Automatic annotation (TrEMBL):
Organism superkingdom: Bacteria
InterPro entries per UniProt: Iso_Racemase_Enz_sf, MaiA/AMDase
A Pfam family the protein falls into: Amdase
Entry protein name: Asp/Glu/hydantoin racemase
PANTHER family, A to Z: BLR3294 PROTEIN
Length: 263
C-alpha cells in the first residue's frame, strides 16, 4: 500500500513537503507472539530476545501484577489479571500466539484456566504456558524419566511434580533451591544451577532435566550444561520460546541453545 506525494517539494526557509510512503508487513511478518510477563520477572524478556532473534519474528510483552513472595496463594491471585494484560498487547493487531510467562501459576491455576483467560481478550488465539511447553518439548525429545529442578518452596515443588505426573510426565527425580523471593531467584548464579542440574542428570533413570521457573537464568549456559550432562536440558523460558515458535508455524532450527531448539 502506498500514498503518492501530495504537495510539491519547495525550497527555501520555512518550506514544507508532504511525502508519500509505502507499507510493508512489518517486523512480525512471519510471526507476532504475545508474552505476559510477571511484574517481578527479571529474566524472560532477556532470554527470549536471545532465542527469538529470527528475521520476521517479533514478540510483544505486557506485565501482570504479582507478589515477589511466591506461594500457592499469591500465584492464584493472578487469575483476574491475565485477560487485562493480554488486552494491552498490540490491540487491534494480529497475534499468532499468546504465551503466559509463569510456570508455577500455570500449575496452580491450571493450563486450561490460563487459556480461558487469554481467550477472553484474544478469542481463538493459540496459547501456551511454560508447563504446557515443557510437556510438549519433553515428548518431542523422547524423554521418559524426567528430573525437575525448581526454586520453589517444597509444597509447590511437590505439587508441580504431581501435576506433571498426572499429565503423563514421569518425574523420577526432583530438587529445589527452596527460595520464595522471586527477585532473588533471578540472581541465582550459573554455578548453582549447573551444579544442581548435573547432580539430577547423574541418575541413570533420568532422560532429561526440566528447570522450572521463568526467573531462573539458563539460556546462555544451556548448551554447555547440556553437553556436560550428556542429556537434554530445558528451561521454562527456552521451552516456552520453542513452543511459541512452533505454534506460530515457525520451524527454523535455532543453534546454540541445546537440542530442543534444533527440533
Amino acid at each position: 500500500m502506498s500514498e503518492l506525494l501530495s504537495t510539491p517539494v519547495q525550497h527555501g526557509a520555512g518550506s514544507y513537503a508532504r511525502f508519500g510512503f509505502s507499507l510493508d508487513a512489518g517486523i512480525a511478518r512471519r510471526a507476532a507472539i504475545g508474552l505476559v510477563v510477571l511484574a517481578t520477572d527479571h529474566t524472560i524478556e532477556y532470554e527470549w530476545r536471545r532465542v527469538l532473534a529470527l528475521d520476521g519474528v517479533a514478540f510483544y510483552e505486557s506485565r501482570i501484577a504479582n507478589s515477589a513472595d511466591i506461594t500457592a496463594e499469591t500465584l492464584a491471585r493472578m487469575d483476574g489479571g491475565i485477560a487485562a494484560a493480554v488486552e494491552l498487547i498490540r490491540p487491534g493487531e494480529r497475534l499468532d500466539v499468546v504465551a503466559f510467562g509463569c510456570t508455577s501459576a500455570s500449575m496452580v491455576l491450571g493450563e486450561e484456566r490460563v487459556f480461558e483467560r487469554i481467550r477472553e481478550a484474544r478469542p481463538g488465539v493459540a496459547c501456551t504456558t511454560p508447563i504446557t511447553a515443557a510437556r510438549v518439548a519433553l515428548g518431542a525429545l523422547g524423554a521418559r524419566g524426567v528430573a525437575l529442578l525448581t526454586p520453589y518452596e517444597r509444597s509447590i515443588n511437590e505439587a508441580m511434580a504431581a501435576y506433571l505426573r498426572a499429565r503423563g510426565v514421569d518425574v523420577v527425580r526432583a530438587g529445589s533451591f527452596e527460595h520464595r523471593d522471586d527477585n532473588e531467584v533471578a540472581r541465582i548464579d550459573r554455578e548453582s544451577i549447573e551444579r544442581a542440574v548435573l547432580a539430577l542428570a547423574a541418575d541413570p533413570a533420568v532422560d532429561a532435566v526440566f528447570v522450572s521457573c521463568t526467573s531462573l537464568r539458563l539460556v546462555d549456559a544451556l548448551a554447555e550444561i547440556e553437553a556436560r550432562a550428556g542429556k537434554p536440558v530445558l528451561s521454562s523460558n527456552h521451552a516456552l520460546a520453542w513452543h511459541a515458535l512452533r505454534l506460530a508455524g515457525v520451524d527454523d532450527p535455532v543453534p546454540g541453545f541445546g537440542r530442543l531448539l534444533m527440533q
